[in-house]
Write a structure and sequence with these properties.
Elements: H1 9-26, H2 34-53, H3 57-64, H4 72-79, E1 80-85, E2 98-105, E3 108-115, H5 121-126, H6 134-150, E4 154-160, H7 167-171, H8 174-187, E5 192-201, H9 202-206, E6 213-217, E7 221-223, H10 227-234, H11 241-248, H12 252-257, E8 263-265, H13 276-294, H14 299-312
Parallel strand pairs: 3-4, 4-5, 5-6, 5-7, 6-8
Antiparallel strand pairs: 1-2, 2-3
Length: about 325
C-alpha cells in the first residue's frame, strides 16, 4: 500500500480491496479469489494510467512533493561509490541541506552537489526541509572550485522549494551567496550535469543547476517561485496555488518546450515513489550519456556553451 494523493482516491479504494482479498487468501480462505484479484489489479493499473495521462500542473506539484519520493541521499547511495562528503563553507558553519563532496559515478571520479529534504520529522529538521542557508551555497562554491582545480565533472541533484528565507539567512547574505554559486557554476570549464528530481524552486535551485545539461524527472517541477508563493503575491491568497501552478508553466513538459531544460526522464506509472530503483537507474544512465556527449570538449567551449544556453532562454518566445 502506498501513501495516496487526493486525486488517487479511486485507485486507493481498489488497492484496498485487493489488499483485503489477498489477506483473506493468505489466511486460508477456501474461496479461490485469484481471478478477482487479477481483475481488480488490471482495473487499478488502467485507472492509474488514465489519471497520470492527464495530470494538471498542480497535481504534478503534489507528485513532485510526495512523501515517499526518492531524495538526493537515496540517489547518492544508488549511483555513487567511494563517497567522500565535505562539510563547511570555511566562513561560518556547515549547512546539511546542501550535501556536497566527491565520489565515483559509474567508476569515474566526480564532484557532487545535492539538496536533501529528509524523509521523516527528525531528518527534515536536520536538513531544514531542503532549504539551504548561505553557508550551503558557499560550501557549493568551495566544492566547485576544487572540482575545477582537479578537472572533475560535477553532478548536481536538485530538490528544494527554495533557499531558506529566514532573517538569519538574510543577515548572512543569502542573495549574495546564491549569486556567487550561480556565477561560479557558469564559469566552470568542466562538464556539469544537473537533474531536477523533485522541486526546483527559485534561486535556491538555479544556484546549483546552471549546468551544461539540465534534465527533469517527468513529474518534477521547476519555477522561479513556489505556486503558493506566487499565489500569495499575485492574488494575496495562497489557496490559489492551483491557479498559479497552471499559469506559471512549471512542469517538465512546459520547460522542455520552452528550451529551459534539455530532456525529460520518464517516471514509473504512478510516480518515482512506486519504483524508486528504476527511476534512479534511469537518471544515472541519462547523466552518464550527457557526460559522454561532452567528453573531450575543450573547457573554454564547455563554459561558452553553458553561458550561451542561459542567454538564449526566452529569446525565441
Amino acid at each position: 500500500m502506498y501513501n495516496y494523493l487526493d486525486f488517487e482516491k479511486l485507485v486507493a479504494d481498489l488497492d484496498g480491496q485487493i489488499f483485503d482479498l489477498k489477506k483473506l487468501g493468505s489466511a486460508g480462505d477456501s474461496v479461490n479469489m485469484n481471478a478477482e484479484i487479477r481483475r481488480l489489479e488490471k482495473r487499478s493499473q488502467q485507472l492509474l494510467r488514465d489519471i497520470y495521462k492527464k495530470l494538471t500542473p498542480w497535481q504534478k506539484a503534489q507528485v513532485a512533493r510526495h512523501v515517499d519520493r526518492p531524495h538526493f541521499l537515496d540517489y547518492a547511495v544508488r549511483l555513487f561509490t567511494d563517497v567522500t562528503p565535505l562539510a563547511g563553507d570555511r566562513k561560518f558553519a556547515d549547512d546539511e541541506a546542501l550535501q556536497a563532496g566527491f565520489a565515483r559515478f559509474y567508476g569515474e571520479p566526480i564532484a557532487y552537489l545535492g539538496l536533501e529534504k529528509g524523509h521523516d520529522t527528525e531528518s527534515r529538521l536536520k536538513y531544514n526541509f531542503g532549504s539551504a542557508r548561505p553557508e550551503g551555497y558557499r560550501k557549493a562554491v568551495r566544492i566547485m572550485e576544487l572540482a575545477e582545480r582537479f578537472g572533475l565533472p560535477v553532478i548536481s541533484l536538485v530538490d528544494t522549494a527554495g533557499a531558506y528565507p529566514g532573517v538569519s539567512a538574510e543577515e548572512r547574505g543569502q542573495a549574495e551567496a546564491i549569486a556567487r554559486s550561480t556565477a561560479e557554476m557558469l564559469n566552470l570549464t568542466i562538464p556539469v550535469v544537473s537533474v531536477i528530481i523533485g522541486e526546483g524552486g527559485s534561486g535556491g535551485a538555479i544556484a546549483i543547476a546552471a549546468a551544461n545539461r539540465v534534465y527533469m524527472l517527468e513529474h518534477a517541477i521547476y519555477s522561479v517561485i513556489s505556486p503558493e508563493g506566487a499565489a500569495s503575491i499575485l492574488w494575496r491568497d495562497a489557496t490559489r496555488a492551483r491557479d498559479a501552478a497552471t499559469n506559471m508553466r512549471i512542469t517538465a513538459q512546459n520547460l522542455y518546450e520552452l528550451k529551459v531544460i534539455d530532456g525529460i526522464i520518464p517516471e514509473p506509472l504512478g510516480g518515482a515513489h512506486r519504483n524508486r530503483e528504476a527511476v534512479m537507474d534511469a537518471t544515472g544512465d541519462i547523466i552518464a550519456a550527457a557526460f559522454k556527449s561532452m567528453a573531450g570538449k575543450d573547457g573554454k567551449i564547455l563554459r561558452q556553451e553553458r553561458r550561451e544556453k542561459y542567454l538564449q532562454i526566452g529569446c525565441n518566445l
